[in-house]
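One chain shown below:
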Amino acid sequence: NELKQINGIKTNDDPRPEYFFVLRNSNCPALLLSLGFLSNSADRSFLNSRSNQELICNKIMASIEKVKVN
């Protein structure tokens, strides 16, 4: 998992997609990401950093590319 490589990102290995309406009822492939809480000052600081935003985007794209290849 690419996002696990980023310090400050919490991951959930068991997201249980059956609970998420947006994933269950999509007519196309769907991706739902929760990267932190803006009400949490540490998460907010991490997510407001331009370099962290670029790092997260790059890791997301790398993950998508891995799935796309397989």
Q: What stands out?
A: The chain is about 45% helix and 0% strand. The CA atoms of residues 17 and 23 lie 6 Å apart. The helical segments are 21-24, 41-48, 50-69. The chain has a mean pLDDT of 80.
